């Protein structure tokens, strides 16, 4: 996954919000929903078709402490997981 690509939510994803930090996602070809809570839900909110991995990471670092310096790897892994589940897709080069 390249950090220069902007990420957007797949058009084949339905989402339901239950509270400020809980989002249930269903990729329309999948059998099971994915529930995002806390930081995962925050990352989902930041996936807007304009931000790339670095912009998402910068926003998270401004909001949350990264005491163990693991946030960059965790964000990269999380975005890769969302892509593998066809929940996000490339929106092309970041602006």
Walk me through the structure.
By secondary structure, the protein is of the alpha+beta class. It is built from three helices and five strands, in the order ββββαααβ. It has helices at 39-46, 53-63, 71-84; strands spanning 5-9, 13-17, 22-27, 34-37, 88-93. The mean pLDDT is 92.
Spans where pLDDT lies below 50 across 5 or more residues: none
Shape: globular
- Percent range for β-strand residues: 25-35%
CATH architecture: Alpha-Beta Complex
Largest sheet: 3 strands, antiparallel
Number of strands: 5
CATH class: Alpha Beta
The SSE order reads EEEEHHHE
Mean pLDDT equals: 92
Strand order of the largest sheet: 2-3-4
Provide the CATH topology.
Outer Surface Protein A, domain 3
In DSSP terms, counting alpha (H) and pi (I) runs of 4 or more, how many helices? Answer: 3
Fraction of helical residues: 25-40%
Topology:
Elements: E1 5-9, E2 13-17, E3 22-27, E4 34-37, H1 39-46, H2 53-63, H3 71-84, E5 88-93
Antiparallel strand pairs: 1-5, 2-3, 3-4
Helix pairs in contact: 2-3
Please sum up the structure shown:
This protein has 95 residues and is of the alpha+beta class. It has helices at 39-46, 53-63, 71-84, and strands at 5-9, 13-17, 22-27, 34-37, 88-93. Strands 2-3-4 form a 3-stranded antiparallel β-sheet, covered by helices on one side. Strands 1-5 form a two-stranded antiparallel ribbon.
């Amino acid at each position: 996954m390249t950090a220069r690509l902007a990420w957007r939510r797949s058009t084949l994803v339905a989402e339901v919000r239950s509270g400020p930090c809980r989002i249930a996602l269903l990729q329309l070809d999948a059998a099971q929903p994915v529930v995002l809570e806390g930081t995962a839900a925050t990352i989902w909110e930041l996936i807007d078709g304009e931000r790339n991995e670095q912009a998402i990471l910068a926003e998270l670092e401004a909001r949350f402490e990264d005491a163990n310096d693991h946030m960059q790897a965790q964000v990269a892994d999380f975005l890769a997981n969302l892509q593998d589940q066809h929940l996000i897709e490339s929106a092309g080069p970041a602006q």
